[in-house]
Design goal:
alpha/beta; Molybdenum Cofactor Biosythetic Enzyme, Chain A; Alpha-Beta Plaits; 16 helices; Maf protein; 3 domains; 6-stranded mixed sheet; about 25% strand; homodimer
Chain lengths: ~425, ~425
């Protein structure tokens, strides 16, 4: 069962909008066993729409389009589909009632643009849009089906979830597609691949391997596209073997952020946390508090960007700053002990580094970063040499700090 | 001058990675007058790569590909391009020296995977990658040119910026395409469109208008695709008129983040800043410090997630918390004054709200947020009612806080 996604909109092609719709749709289609072979983004032009639809219907059983069905003049998808499927727009009483009710509820009167929303292609099945005025449409041609949905993510997702996906599940006998993702941190891709070479060569042919690197983590993905049900024991074995080869690098067997894994550890161990951040500028605090319920364990943070704040709020002695510098083992150890003490927490993370682009010296080039973590009375600190790019350095420092604490907490209950 | 972007990678199609590369590339190509007609995302399969390349080279003068040129076995783009362009991989001394130096600098030895990175297609021009081991490649066919670049965003961007874009600018006579983007905050889209209706109807036909909403800001984009040079005066007039209609909502006439605009204001006014954050969890500090050079003006922050920290580090009296609650005008005013005083800054932002999903009450539902800003002796505070989604609430609170300070600073020099 193959599918193609077509997203229509100049704003995507000129990069003003990132195509999150395609990512979400790809994920959802995969979950129900439909693989996406191709995603195409095209302009709001009739010729381009005709060509993309024509090509997609030749190769795919399911084609899903988004965009260009709103009320304004630049929305031409509905008309283009009429000309492609050789049909015409007809007035729909039902659609009109919906649009009228929708608009009136918001204290306005139906205007000309709203009225146009009540016209739909004669030979399509209308997919009602309960949170907007642009309805989805479904066309069939031969053995293929084409859905045209709004481009507004929330509206698209609601119609997909409530109408398109259930219909696809019930219409086809879909074999499951399985993806398992193992999250790793701390080993660069080429070295990870080297360590895993024998393991990779021993994978059953049905299991496909992919490495997904990012500045934060490397995800190892195992995919099974055919006969997935029967391969599950081998998948489990492969993942167990992976844990034996790189136990120090794996922080999750499911697609989970490090901040979520760390917060779960803190919850399980009943430990509180605070952070003292210099070059990360509050990013660690921001990541941890992005997880719902973080307030149970996360107490707070001091962002000490300026050295005076390190002295005044985090008790880093002036002599330490003068003798060792702000980016030093002595400084981060003072920071971590101090924030843990003042915030009365069980654990803490402290980071001080040179994010760049300026501020580097010969002894401490841009990217030099010291990180300390504290759990109860234990303090561990480590020096990192990241690269030359500010954004990447900040990300890596935040993730390295969380990962150091994560590693200490792995053995916490065993102590 | 037309172009097609091809992004290779199963991880994009299954929605594991959002295609931010295509957005960035589309934006940069547009800036130099190259319009992107189509973006295609395909799987890591030789047949699919051949077909996409073939089709793209038939219609576009410039084809840019990303992905699949890393060191692991699932990276098959280099081999697929060799078979498409009927060439073979050859060992490059130069590439090997680069890879060796790169790997050794990071304290490791060259392994077999690294070694493979030193092989490049015989008939391509190598585009060195100074921040990674996978070089870019350039192939020509007839009047078309194809670039194949790494999929890792930072590496792709660096090669684009330093090699591909300058080469395209110098190779072609490119007619300008003009996009002007006005950044607004604080007026919902429907009301913005209503306020701007007459203005929109009076736009010259050559100027195309688009509204691009996001949780943070609404961007108003004016585009001119033909004879752009002669329309510049009308564009300037349209933007001036816009400023007269919604002066309170516009924070930039160029595509700039609010944090960057705010930091520039602080620089120009020679003012320092600190923040006291509860529900935003350090996000404001993190946004401001994402801008290079932030340390000149940004001093630090207290993230007071727990009420004890509000009392202890930010002098919020226990009675205030008991009488008015943590999410109240009295609390945020204490917070803003206190952080400004302790951090010895000229300005400060304080935020306290209920981000959700839990913690709401009938009187103070999820989304209720108080924000205070201080500039010298002046303190302004305001209550906001955001929605029910944690992530959106945190984003909106951070942006609202920065926007309040931005608005006070607009008139700072005039005082």
């Amino acid at each position: 069962m193959k599918s193609v996604i077509i997203n229509i909109g100049d704003e995507i092609l000129i990069g003003q909008v990132v195509n999150t719709n395609a990512a979400w749709m790809g994920e959802e289609l995969n979950k129900i066993g439909i693989s996406v072979d191709k995603t195409i983004v095209i302009r709001d032009r009739e010729d381009d729409i005709h060509q993309a639809v024509d090509e997609a219907l030749k190769t795919a059983s399911v084609v899903i389009m988004t965009g260009g069905i709103g009320p304004t003049n630049d929305d031409i998808t509905k008309e283009s589909l009429c000309s492609y499927f050789d049909t015409r727009l007809v007035f729909s009483e039902e659609m009109y009632s919906h649009v009228e009710a929708f608009v009136k509820k918001r204290g306005r009167e139906v205007n000309e643009n709203n009225l146009m929303q009540a016209y739909v292609p004669e030979n399509c099945t209308v997919l009602p849009n309960k949170i907007g005025t642009a309805a989805g449409m479904k066309f069939t041609q031969g053995n293929s089906v084409l859905y045209s949905l709004p481009g507004i993510p929330f509206e698209m997702k609601t119609i997909m979830r409530e109408q398109v996906l259930p219909e696809l599940v019930s219409s086809y006998q879909l074999p499951p597609v399985i993806h398992r993702t193992i999250m790793t941190f701390g080993i660069p891709e080429a070295f990870l691949a080297e360590k895993l070479k024998d393991w990779e060569n021993n994978l059953p042919p049905e299991i496909q391997l992919a490495y997904l690197p990012s500045p934060r983590v490397i995800r190892i993905r195992l995919s099974v596209y055919e006969n997935a049900g029967s391969v599950i024991p081998q998948l489990d074995d492969a993942i167990s073997a992976l844990h034996e080869i790189i136990p120090e690098a794996i922080f999750s067997d499911i697609e989970q952020n490090l901040e979520e894994v760390l917060l779960n550890q803190l919850r399980n161990c009943k430990l509180s946390i605070s952070t003292a951040e210099s070059c990360t500028g509050g990013l660690i605090a921001s990541l941890i508090t992005s997880i719902p319920g973080a307030s149970e364990n996360f107490t707070g943070s001091v962002v000490a960007y300026n050295n005076n704040i390190k002295t005044q709020m985090l008790d880093v002695p002036q002599e330490v700053l003068e003798t060792y510098g702000a980016v030093s083992e002595a400084t981060v150890e003072c920071m971590v002990k101090s924030v843990k003490k003042h915030f009365h927490t069980d654990t803490a993370i402290a980071v001080s580094g040179i994010a760049g682009p300026d501020g580097g010296t010969k002894e401490k080039p841009v990217g030099t970063t010291w990180i300390a973590v504290a759990v109860k009375d234990k303090v561990i600190s480590r020096k990192f040499m990241f690269g030359s790019t500010r954004e990447v350095n900040v990300q890596k420092a935040a993730y390295s700090g969380m990962f150091m604490l994560h590693n200490v907490l792995r053995n916490f209950n065993k102590q």
